[in-house]
Write a structure and sequence with these properties.
Length: about 220
Amino acid sequence: MPELNLILVGPPGAGKGTQAERLTDDFALPYFATGNMLREAVTAGTDLGKKAKGFMDAGDLVPDDVIIGMILESLASDDARDGFLLDGFPRNVEQADALAAAMAEVGRELTGVLAIELSDEEVIRRLSGRRTCVENGHSYHLDFDPPNSPDVCDQDGSALIQRDDDNPATIKRRLEVYHAQTAPLLDYYEQRGLLQRFDGDHTQSEVHEKLRAAITTLRMQDEI
């Protein structure tokens, strides 16, 4: 069976995590979210985790070579033998070049890059409408899944708050970083014939169906 080595790209709030969960079930692919990988490596106390912890404790960004090292370790696992779904890296063109070179050294290459696109206005609406209860972390959305009583959790009666990350001003700053650093990856991967674009302004099920169909086609093409 040909490998499916895939990257998910998109702005915050585009639904990458939700779609990744569904796609990993569809295609039996491991999902590598770099934020989770960093936390797990630090907790496990691996050599790379110890290196990452030193930078994180100092308030510095973890260097690209450390993150790529973690990705390559994950690719070497039996779970990733037939492919993977990567989210959170690369975040810029320089990282994309470094990742491609590192994968080439171990005889692997990307199959495709799946970009879920969403307008800034919709990103702000989706993220700023989220509310979380202070007691147990139950989640709501003022538009899509509102609580029965404003500002009160239906399940435990505790107060609902808006996380700092979901403040509109914070979201706008995150979008500025995305457009400046990560959005150029779309042209980068399009020039290499790897990019497929998906309109994220549809239901989760509709986006999932289009992603699943695209990945199925990629697998069939590689089998020819």
